[in-house]
Amino acid sequence: MPTLGSLPNDKPELRLTFVWNNSKRARAMEISGVVTMAPEQLLEDGVPGNLPDGSLVLITGAVPFRLRGRITTVLEKLLQHMRQKGSSGLVVNAVPDARQPFPQPVVDQAMRLDVPLLTTAAPAEIWEGVHEEIQQFRLRLAERRASHLSSLVQELPAQLADSRAMQRIADWLARVLDVQVLVSEPERVLAASPTTAAEQLAQAIIQQSVDTGLPDAPCRPHTQLIPLAPTSAVDTVLAVARRSPFDDADLLLLRHAAKLLGLVDQAHREYRAASDASRAVRNAAFELLLDGEVAKARRVMTNLVPGLLEPDTARVFVVETEQAYRDTALRRCTAAIGHGALVVPDLKRARRILIVHPIRSEEDNGAAVSAELTHLVGTFGTNSSLGGSGVYSMTLLTDALHEAITAQSFAALQPDAVALSVHGSDLVSLLPQSEAHFWARHLLSPLMRDEAQWESLRETLPAALAYPYTVAARRLHLHRNTVMRRVRTAAEVLHMDFGRVGDRIVVALALEMVTQRETADPPGLADSDPPSLARLLAPPQIHAWAQTLVRPVQADRRNLLATARAWLAFDTHVEPASRALGLSEVTVRSHLRALEHHMQRDLSTLSGARDLHVALHVATGNPGLLTDRPDGGLRVVA
């Protein structure tokens, strides 16, 4: 858009001269058009009522300005009307070096109204067509602005949190305005186009700050710095530079782009904050589920995904992939199944993703989710694998997780890198189910004779055997003394010592078979003698399972197997085990952590100690580790 300051430079033949108000602000006033009127017309018709906003008023022909009277009055009224319409200035014809082109009252009126006064020595015919040229220029400028704004709107992302949106807008600005673009915070670069813009813009900005107030050098780039959020504490800035100056249309486009970039930046910040909060809630809910605090986990997830954890059963899946790809895989899994499953990163293993899929009906066994995960893992790369558990009660998700981890370790050795089952890759599932169920019922039969006693013990014993009595009481919402009394009763009836890890493992295993793995006894089995646990552990699938767990332990240069045997022989107490081994307690604890890493088991849990116990017995064939007892149980022998 031409201004009072640029019009004389663009069209020197007009020979415009400021008489009053040659300020920088006045020279920057935009001219929307030229309104030409003759003195006679002005005197005869008076001030025109349809004066366009922002127009430059030109009075052509000789005017006897030294006369006082009607012309002065009309000019004063004209200045008032120009002020109301925001006119850019009043121009009159005057000979060069005219001493008083305007009457003094008109000059005084212009000063009060802040309307610039100018003269021109150009004849009227030279002014012909100027108005049309300005209108054509405005039309071209409007079309360019409309085109740029339309194009900018096309760059608006479908989702403001789109991680590539800011870079696409920067690339568009660089292409449309032929500029270098940098969007940055004090600590980091958010987007740059081209990739070298950060270095070059930094130099241009520094040079601009040093040369402030000096005339523009032809070799120095012109720069613009626009804060994306000027009213907030966020210091994100759009910086652009190019060799040629920026016109008003360019600056307007940059301001629009900065607003859009500011919205994208705000969305990114809010999305990250919401994502971090959501991730923390999901992680907390998962940890509560593993601790058996199902009610608390449901309350935690209520506001995030209402009803997600309401079912009583669930399956657990484990995805393992490259560490560098884990976050991407986590996002893809969440996008695919996050509406119906709890997807979290494993905080203890940087390559692993953990998934809890609640089962909402008997017909739903998680097949759709497992199929989707199988497809996703197939796209993650050759070092990715998937393991899945069977359907477990929500209160037993720790066992489900162990099964899924075992399945994933099997999957890593399979051609398709997937091992999914409805029970089939953990120790309990690999046992011959009918025989194991018969063995378990026979072992627990003394507890089952009194129905009332059995109902209380089947509720209490699984937690009491797996956790300290105080923790078990809290989980069961019972008094600690009640838990201790029931455990003491069970131990007396079964003639066992629950201070021994072997007795706890055997009874917990039998309880799981009876309460969680209901299986009908085959005809004739009830008339035979119950199998021993050693016989139940003899099938080849159990040996394959045990070898899978023990193989990485045997590959360790440290004698971890000896530490494991001593630790189990002394009922998972570190101090006597360290004395028997002649090692420090620190070394024994280090060996136990290595065992956990190699076997992917948490040895602080009863199920983890059980898997270590049985795997060592089966894989190493050590006859002294476990021996049959007359009641069908096992005894650890040092």
What share of the residues does DSSP label as strand, in percent?
A: 5-15%
Gyration radius, in Å:
43 Å
pLDDT average, as an integer? 80
How many separate helices? 26
What is the terminal-to-terminal distance? 96 Å
- Shape descriptor: rod-shaped
The major beta sheet can be summarized as: 6 strands, mixed
The chain-level structural class is alpha+beta
Note down, in words, how this protein is organized:
The protein has 638 residues and is an alpha+beta fold. It is 52% helix and 13% strand. It contains 26 helices and 17 strands. The strands form four sheets. Strands 10, 11, 12, 13, 14 and 15 form a six-stranded mixed beta sheet that branches. It is rod-shaped and about 130 Å long. 36% of the residues are buried.
In short:
By secondary structure, the protein is α+β, with helices and mostly antiparallel strands. It has 26 helices and 17 strands.
List the helices and strands and how they pair.
Layout: H1 7-10, E1 16-20, H2 24-27, E2 33-37, H3 39-45, E3 55-59, H4 70-85, E4 89-93, H5 104-113, E5 117-120, H6 124-127, H7 130-154, H8 165-177, E6 180-184, E7 189-193, H9 197-210, E8 222-227, E9 237-242, H10 248-290, H11 294-301, E10 313-320, H12 326-337, E11 342-345, E12 352-359, H13 367-380, E13 385-388, E14 392-393, H14 397-411, E15 418-419, H15 427-430, H16 433-448, H17 451-466, H18 469-476, H19 480-494, H20 501-515, H21 533-536, H22 540-555, H23 560-569, H24 574-581, H25 585-599, H26 606-620, E16 626-628, E17 634-636
Parallel strand pairs: 2-3, 3-4, 4-5, 13-15
Antiparallel strand pairs: 1-5, 6-7, 6-9, 8-9, 10-12, 10-13, 10-14, 11-12, 16-17
Helix pairs in contact: 4-5, 7-10, 8-10, 10-11, 12-13, 16-20, 17-18, 17-19, 17-20, 18-19, 20-26, 22-25, 22-26, 23-24, 23-26, 24-25
